[in-house]
Design a protein that fits this description.
Elements: H1 5-18, H2 26-42, E1 64-70, H3 74-83, E2 92-96, E3 101-107, H4 111-120
Antiparallel strand pairs: 1-3, 2-3
Length: about 130
């Protein structure tokens, strides 16, 4: 089978349409999971009725809150987050902010604990 330009375009359009562009909202996750299972049957995988991965993953981005904090307080913020044994990339993440600020993405589960410690340490936090 020769791969022509038109066949390649068709394959690319189909992959984009299948939803491989990142995390999906909960309303579209079920639809994607059923189409993924149908595709796996076509590829020759035998389905046993039990899911091969967790289907209700959800969006982790929706469970995060963002705070703008001055760069001068970054050392104190890092010290507090390590004291609470939070994992970078999972529980929190740093980002670039405007001016001399950075963005702290924080999991909502730890929001109250971290904010209390930041305020006690006199870190200037902007929501």
């Amino acid at each position: 089978m020769k791969l022509t330009k038109s066949k390649l375009r068709k394959i690319i359009r189909e992959m984009i349409r299948e939803g491989f562009a990142g995390p999906l909202p909960k309303s579209e996750q079920g639809k994607f999971e059923t189409s993924r299972k149908k595709s796996s049957e076509v590829l020759g995988y035998k389905l046993t009725g039990t899911p091969d991965r967790k289907t209700n993953i959800g969006l982790t981005e929706a469970k995060m809150v963002q705070y703008s904090i001055p760069e001068s307080d970054k050392r104190m913020v890092t010290k507090i987050l390590t004291k609470l044994k939070l994992k970078a990339g999972k529980d929190f993440d740093y980002g670039a902010g405007k001016g001399a600020n950075f963005i702290l993405d924080l999991d909502k589960r730890f929001e109250n604990k971290v904010l209390d410690l930041l305020l006690k340490s006199r870190v200037r936090v902007h929501g």
